[in-house]
Amino acid sequence: MFRIGLMLLVAVTAFDQMPSTGQAAHSSDELTAWLDTRFSDLWIEAGAEPAAVDDATFLRRAYLDLLGTIPSVATTRDFLADAAPDKRKRLVEQLAAETKSAAHLSRVWRRIMVPGGSPNAFMAGQFEPWLQQQFASRVPFDEFARKLLTAKGTANFGAINPASNAGPNAGSPVAFYMAVGNTPDSLASSFSRVFLGVRIGCAKCHNHPFADWRQEDFWGMAAFFAGANLTGQPGAEVSDNKVSKIKPMESDKEYEVRFLWSDAAAKVPDDKFPREVLADWMVSKQNPNFAATIVNRVWQQLCGQGLVPQVDDLDQAPAKQRAQVLDDLAQQFADADFDLYWLIEGICKSRVYQRPSEAPEAVSDNPLTTHRPLKTLSPEQVFDAMEQALMLPVARGDQSPRYNGQRDQLIGRLNEATSDAPDQFRAGIPQALLIMQGALTSNATDLDESRTLRAVVDAPFLESAEKIETLYLAALTRKPEASELERMRTHVEGQSSRDDRRRAYAEIYWALLNSPEFILCR
Amino acid sequence: MSTAFDRDYSRRDFLQMSLAGMLGVSYSGWFGKLAAAAAASGERHRSCILLWMSGGPSQLDTFDLKPGHKNGGPYAQIESSVPGVKISEHLPGLAKHMQHMALVRGMTSKEGDHARATYLMLTGYREQEAVRYPALGSMVAKELGKEDHELPNFVSISPQRFGGGGGSGFLGPQFAPLVVSGASDNPLARANMSVENLLPPTGVTERSLENRFALLDFLQTEFGTRYKKSEAAAAHRANYERAVRMVKTQAKSAFKLEDESPALRDAYGRNRFGQGCLLARRLIERGVPFVEVTLSGAGNNGAGWDTHGNNFDLVKNLSEVLDPAWATLMQDLKDRGLLDATLIVWMGEFGRTPVINAQNGRDHFPVAWSTVLAGAGIRGGQAYGDTGASGMQVEKNPVTVPEFMATICSALGIDPTKENITEEGRPIPIVERGGHPINDLLAQARA
Question: What was the ipTM of the complex prediction?
Answer without folding.
Answer: 0.91
